[in-house]
Amino acid sequence: MSLVTAVDLSKTYVTGQVEVKALKGLNFEIEPASFVSFVGPSGSGKTTLLNLMGCLDKATEGELVVAGEHVNALDRRQSASFRGSFLGFIFQSFNLLPVLTAYENVEYPLVMIKNESKSKRKDMVLKVLNSVGILDLKDKFPDQLSGGQRQRVAVARALVTQPKLVLADEPTANLDHATARNVIRLMRDMRDEFGTTFIFSTHDPRVMHEAEVIHTLEDGRLTHTEQGSDRRGNHD
Ligand SMILES: Nc1ncnc2c1ncn2[C@@H]1O[C@H](COP(=O)(O)OP(=O)(O)OP(=O)(O)O)[C@@H](O)[C@H]1O
Ligand SMILES: [Mg+2]
After folding, report:
1. Rounded mean pLDDT of 13-18?
2. Ligand nearest to the CA of 40
């Protein structure tokens, strides 16, 4: 069964008298444990689509099913609870809390949404910091870390609740090419290790090919779907 199914999915923003058709009838499916990118020029609808899949906004028309939930039908409280239990987010701007250490940033979602004991939380945080290769940086504050290291903290924070799906909107936009590719590969390794589905957006052609499936958006339409260079079983 697909993890995400979109049927004739549309989103129109209305501001005053102005309507913007940001998504125009998208149809696609995303398999569990896959590694998928949405690419396209600025304004093509990438963020809009990720916000819909992340239950941060509602579609205007069509059907969107995420992990068996018809997310358009959820009210605010149900959306919040669904986000907390099924989803992780990685943002372009990292969104780390500057007054918290790397360890505390990663621990934060566990404190917020789960009732884990302090020692259980510690086990979970240390394991995921180790997986993303920054255990030795756990006591550093964000402004003491490089862009790539901060993004590793953001990946760890998205994974610590063991979500089924991680959504990453332009996760490499502020990074140089080598660091960007490393972060994408790290996410793919995390998919391999935890079976988490990753969906990321980018307009960087150099990182989009790290995905197994690449969906291209143009002016709110899905115009092209291709297999990336690193299909599962095809990389070491
Ligand atoms: N909150 C909003 N209200 C009105 N229009 C919006 C809103 N958010 C996005 N739009 C419009 O919807 C369209 C799609 O925007 P979106 O942010 O999804 O594109 P994007 O592919 O993420 O672009 P970028 O690469 O610049 O991040 C654009 O025309 C944009 O101006
Ligand atoms: Mg965007």
Report:
1. 94
2. 1
pTM, full prediction = 0.91
Instruction: Name the closest ligand to CA 43.
Output: 1
CB atoms within 10 A of CB 8: 12
Burial grade of 234 (CB within 10 A; 0-12, 13-18, 19 or more)? exposed
In the chain the domains, ranked by start, together with CATH numbers, are 32-59+74-227 (3.40.50.300)
Q: 36 forms bridges with which residues in the sheet?
A: 199, 213
Summarised one tens digit per residue, pLDDT across range 75-112 is 999 999 999 889 999 987 768 999 999 999 999 989 88
Candidate from 15-24, 85-94, 128-137 with smallest mean pLDDT:
85-94
- Ligand 1 atom showing the smallest separation from residue 48 Cα: 18
Name the H helices within 58-168: 76-86, 102-113, 118-131, 147-159
Q: Tell which one of 38, 48, 203 to mutate to probe ligand 1, the residue whose CB is within 8 A of the most ligand atoms.
A: 48
| Amino acid letter, residue 135 | L
